[in-house]
Amino acid sequence: MTNPVLVEVMRGSIVESRHRGAVAVADAEGRDVLALGDVTIPVFPRSAIKALQALPLVEQGAAARYGFGDQELALACASHSGEPAHVAGVERMLAKAGLSPSALRCGAHFPISQAAAAEVARAGAPSALHNNCSGKHAGFLCFACALGVDAAEYFRPEHPVQRQVRAVLEDFTGAVLGQEVCAIDGCSVPTWAVPLKNLALGFAKFGTGHGLVPERARAAARLRQACARQPWYVAGTGRFCTEVMQLLGERVFVKAGAEGVYCGAFPEQGLGIAIKCDDGAGRAAQAIMAVIIARFVPLEASEQAALAPYARSSLQNWNGIEVGAISVTEAL
Amino acid sequence: MTNPVLVEVMRGSIVESRHRGAVAVADAEGRDVLALGDVTIPVFPRSAIKALQALPLVEQGAAARYGFGDQELALACASHSGEPAHVAGVERMLAKAGLSPSALRCGAHFPISQAAAAEVARAGAPSALHNNCSGKHAGFLCFACALGVDAAEYFRPEHPVQRQVRAVLEDFTGAVLGQEVCAIDGCSVPTWAVPLKNLALGFAKFGTGHGLVPERARAAARLRQACARQPWYVAGTGRFCTEVMQLLGERVFVKAGAEGVYCGAFPEQGLGIAIKCDDGAGRAAQAIMAVIIARFVPLEASEQAALAPYARSSLQNWNGIEVGAISVTEAL
Hints:
Two copies of one chain form a homodimer.
Chain A: E1 5-11, E2 14-27, E3 32-36, E4 42-43, H1 50-53, H2 55-59, H3 62-65, H4 70-76, H5 84-96, H6 114-123, H7 134-147, H8 160-173, E5 182-184, E6 190-192, E7 194-195, H9 196-208, H10 214-229, H11 240-248, E8 253-257, E9 261-266, E10 271-277, H12 282-296, H13 301-311, E11 312-316, E12 322-328
Antiparallel strand pairs in A: 1-2, 1-12, 2-3, 2-10, 4-7, 5-6, 8-9, 9-10, 11-12
Helix pairs in contact in A: 4-7, 4-10, 5-7, 8-9, 9-10, 11-13, 12-13
């Protein structure tokens, strides 16, 4: 099956590039509310499921034991921009469990934030703390410490931390996550490929607690609350996930993943969402998510206006001249 | 028509992302040697035609008048990485025509080279000299000075420089470039959408001189020679265009454009090449170009070995672990 063109990039009056993809919206019973394109083949959710990867940390009491507040929990779910307060927050998470940044195994990269990257370049070189995944990794490390297991190899699929993460993913999505759908993520932890319809189901459960044991439902609600209260810590200045959750609070949970993935939950509607662009384009996945929010979540006029520039974003060149636009197609 | 999947991005044993596209290979008579996907719809070649944009500068004697050598001519055709010698070369071009960098209208961005970007961040902020198009813009400015026209608005479609560029593009490609296919490029100059088959024809003529008036054919040969002699100035350290032309010299001319475009010429085979990935992915266009070179240009075993990692490139994560690969499909 060939997925439909969902997003077009215009330059002047001509379509310069096209993005195909698939979208699943489901309720917590797994009923398809929207299934556009092939929602049954396994896709790697990458960072879009960080909130599910952070769930054991909360559910089993490690987050409470180390006194994690909203900022720390949001960082555990984050692909942060490596801005100074993100880095300080991750250091704080590690310190609360008596760990140093040298325990992080995510690898180093320059901050996503260009301003932060320039600062890091001025001062020296980036460290693992600047990696957008460092909050997730700090969460894994703290969870390992609370479990009382050797934390050194926390990133390996056979480590108790990753085995528990896998069990949580299977519980939420209903998918069986065997070796054949396992690969290695950019930050070295395992990533399992899951069909979009199962990811949508998983996020409907994450948003509502339906179908989860009570302590798991409470952990999900706590993570959603933390992200809604501290959305800057989930991404960073000017980024989509941050701005959407700043705008809509607990009404929308949204999280980007690499290679054109978004997952999200609309708790009041009882819906979960999973998006994948065939070609891995984040610019397209973001536009799709903006349109899906506008379609399923009742919005005030001011909220609609705030979201509109994401559904149709102006393309500007290096001189700030508008040269085109990125917008969703009629298939949506 | 739906273009075929030409490149797959694997993570572990699963296809994570897919890139569709079209490829045209033609001779200087416009005969299709290869037409994969839709090669008849207009696409913006963007920076892939910088050598054609630089042609009037050489053909009409401005390059000789200002004493441009191989490095300056390569920079006029370049999407350079903003490394120190690129920046110095562009300053030199401007100085030879008595111009200062403040005349550049390409806009500023951080160097493509991460090392150079870090250096620029340490020292301050990027300038228009660091813009990957600054050599092309310096060429436009010098051409305007040699024409004796006011250079200030050299980037506008109605300026004599851009009108001459458009006439050259029409002569090479055989396409009529009206207002309806004109848009603004990232660096503010006009860009005209041209069908891939016409771009392939244009580069077959660029590579062979067939079908061009003698002074135009000589200018094309001079630019190819300059790029082959100084390929580092066409892109930069570690980049595909540079490495391919370092490897194969005048046997292959190759140039990337934004949004998943490559153009090239195989002079000995009399062929021109034009590639566009539907979704704008440069990673895919590069893999396709590597395969097209290997298919049409007779290569030594060592040259084949040097090119192979571009046709199938290893994907490594932040810890240097191989997590997947980018490779072309059987459609190629």
